[in-house]
Amino acid sequence: MAGNRIAVVGAGIIGCLVARELAAREPQAAITVLDRDAIGCGASRRSAGLHLPRGAGERLRHMTRYSQDYYEELGRQRPSLPIHPTDVSVVSATADDRAIRATYLDGARPVRTGHQDLPDFGIPQDAAVWGVDGGHRTDVHGLVRALARDLRQRADFHEGLGVTGIEPLADRVVLRLSTGDTLTADRVVLAPGPWTADPALAPFVPPSGIRVKRVVALHIERSPGEGDGTVVFQDEDAFLLPLHERGHWLYSFTRTEWDVDPGTAARGLSAADVEEAHDSLRRWAPELVKYRASGRVFCDAYSAQREPVVQVADDAGRVVFAGAANGCGYRLAPAIAREAVDLVLNMAEDHR
To answer: How many Å apart are CA 18 and CA 24, to the nearest integer?
Structure first.
C-alpha cells in the first residue's frame, strides 16, 4: 500500500486510533483525518472514559481483552497520558457468582467482598458485592488530543471541515467538503460516532438497524474520597465513577430516548433526564439524589446486535464503516480500529 491515500472521517477516539493503526502498519501511506468539529469534541469529549473488563459474547470479550492490553501498553509507553487505574466494585441484587464470572473476563478475577469498602450512598445492604481487577478511567478528550498531536507527524488533520458528499469510483473515492473543495483518496474509513443520519454518510451506514440513543450522566456534587473506586450497578447497567481531578462523582445510567439528533442532543438536561436518573439513583444510591446539580448529555449509535459494526460499506470496496459502538466507543476503540484497518489492507490486496 506504499503511497496510498487514506482518509479517515471522524476525529474522535475511534477515528484517531484508526489513523494511529494505519500509521503503524502502513508507514508509506498518506493519511488525512477530517472532522466537522475540533478533534475529540463529539462523543469523545462527553465520554465517561471508563474501561470495564467485561463483555457479553465471544466477539465483545475478545475486543475488550485486546483493547485492555492496548491501553495498558499505551499507558506504560506514555505515563503522562490521562489513563488512570480505578478499583471496581460490582453490586447486584440478582446476580450470583456464575453470572458475574460469565460477564467479566477471566483476568478480572471477580471476588466476593462486602459493603465495608463501598461509599456511604445508601446502597442496598441485601445486594451482593464483588471486586474486579482491570478497570481504568480516562479523560478521553485529553487522550484524543494527545494522540492527534503525535499523529500530526504522520497524518494531516483538517478540523472544522465537514464532508458533504462521498463518491466511490472504481479507482478512487472523491470526498466533497463543506468549503466546496474536494479530496481524493484511495480508501476511506468512516468513524462518524452518532452522526449516522448525516446525508453524506447515511448511504454508507450498514442497513442493519443502527439507531442513535440519548446518553446522560449526572454530576454528583459530593467529593470522592482518596480511596474511592468505581461502583457498578450490574442490574441497572449504571455506574458511579469518582472524578478525583474534578472533585465530584459521575453517575451514568441507561437513558431510554431513541432516534436522537446529535445536533440538538447537547442542549442540556431535560426534566425527563432528571426523572429517569432520580428513579435509578433511588434504587441503588438514594443518599446521592440530593447532590445532583448538573450533568452531561449527548448521544451514541447502537447496533441491533449490540456489537460494533465494522464492515465494507460500498460496492467498489473502497469505504469502510467503523462505529455503532453501543456506548462503548472508548472501551472498544483499539479493537474497532484494528478490525477497520484489517479491512482496509485486505481491500487494497484485492484491488492489486
So the answer is: 10
- Model pTM above 0.85: yes
- Cα separation, 104 vs 237, whole angstroms: 14
Q: What is the pLDDT of residue 1?
A: 47
- Percent of the chain residues past pLDDT 70, beyond the cut: 98
The 10s digit of each residue's pLDDT in 185-225 is 999 999 999 999 999 999 999 887 899 999 999 999 999 99
137 forms bridges with which residues in the sheet?
Answer: 50, 84
